[in-house]
Amino acid sequence: MTRFGDFDVLCRDTPSYTWCNLFYRQILDKDSSVFTNASTPQVSAGMGVNPTCTIPRMGHDGSLGNIANIVVCALSMVFIGVLIWATNKRKAAVGRIELRTFLSLYFLTLPLQLITTGAFLEQGSTALVAITAIHAGTVAALFWSLLANALVATQVVEDGTPSSLIPFYAIAILFFAATTYISFDIALTITSTFGPSSPPSALGSIPLFVLTSIWPAVTVVIYFGLMTYIVLAVLNEVRPMWFYILSAALFVLSQLDYFLLNKVICKGSNSKIDGSFVATVLETAAVGVLYLAWKSITEESWDEDAYYPS
User: Fold this and answer.
1) Spatial separation of the C-alpha atoms in residues 254 and 277, rounded to whole Å
2) Superfamily of domain 8-296
């Protein structure tokens, strides 16, 4: 029976599930008998551990790797780059620096995702483990920055000041460092604190599961709750709330696609592509709509003239 923190089912049934890269190396070192499909050599193996469907490594069996998600990640980087530029231009907007940091962290996750899920590198290689660990740390820091943006929006502390930015960056660095270290420890068994799992076939790690699954979900819920309060109760607005609702809906749909349709698309395409590219499109769209929500409740520039609401 699968226990809390076990990744075995996810690594088997969810194609391109990023954190499986960490357990592949662990299994190779501790108990390679866990691999039931001995006909798939390590040099051409796709993501997952005993996956029901996976895209072979690029260059093997005519595979182009996870080409659909590679293209979408690249296009998303251009789109997010434009959002960062647009955010930076809104000099007077509340939370400009904090939102720019959130967008920058999301931008960083895209090339990391492109590499960790693109089937470029050999499974179990040190390079893939290292990039996956950094990816995990960036994701944990990303969701802290999302939550911090909501806290800044409450104006408990003035945005863009040391009282706001020092805790913002310090906690982001802590999340990044802790998650990255835990990921390295799981994959390389640096200590016995976070790895290996017992039994090895369970692919278990409660800290990794909390930081990459539970923590993001919790921050999204808290962020949505705080912004609902700010928009409806403090600003007494309705229109911006629809942006936040749409952004939340897009994020939820991205997760449903990733965990429910991913395997269906993989099998339907004969392991040529999977549903990860759809999830990336929806996640990037959610971030874009989040920017529109922020834009709708902030001022673009300082106005010295008297303001009269219409």
Assistant:
1) 10
2) Rhodopsin 7-helix transmembrane proteins (1.20.1070.10)
Residue 196: the pLDDT is: 66
Q: What is the predicted pLDDT for the residue at 193?
A: 79
- Poorest-pLDDT segment among 76-80, 163-167, 213-217: 163-167
Mean pLDDT of all residues in the chain?
90
The confidence score (pLDDT) of residue 302 equals 45
More confident residue, 43 or 154: 154
What is the band of 238 on the pLDDT scale with cuts at 50, 70, 90?
very high
Query: From CA 56, how far away is CA 102, in angstroms rounded?
Result: 33
At residue 262, does pLDDT exceed 60? yes
Residues 6+ away with beta carbon under 8 Å from 294: 93, 95, 99, 149
Higher-confidence position of 199 and 90: 90
pTM: 0.93
Tell me the domain boundaries of the chain.
Answer: 8-296
**Which residues neighbour 295 within 8 Å (Cβ) at sequence distance 6 or greater?**
90, 93
Q: HEC profile for the chain?
A: CCCCCECHHHHHHCCCCCCHHHHHHHHHHHCHHHCCCCCCCHHHCCCCCCCCCCCCCCCCCCCCCCHHHHHHHHHHHHHHHHHHHHHHHCCCCCCHHHHHHHHHHHHHHHHHHHHHCCCCCCCCCHHHHHHHHHHHHHHHHHHHHHHHHHHHHCCCCCCCCHHHHHHHHHHHHHHHHHHHHHHHHHHHCCCCCCCCCCCHHHCECHHHHHHHHHHHHHHHHHHHHHHHHHHHHHCCCCHHHHHHHHHHHHHHHHHHHHHHHHHHHHHHCCCCCCCHHHHHHHHHHHHHHHHHHHHHCCCCCCCCCCCCCC
Place of tokens 């921050």: 219
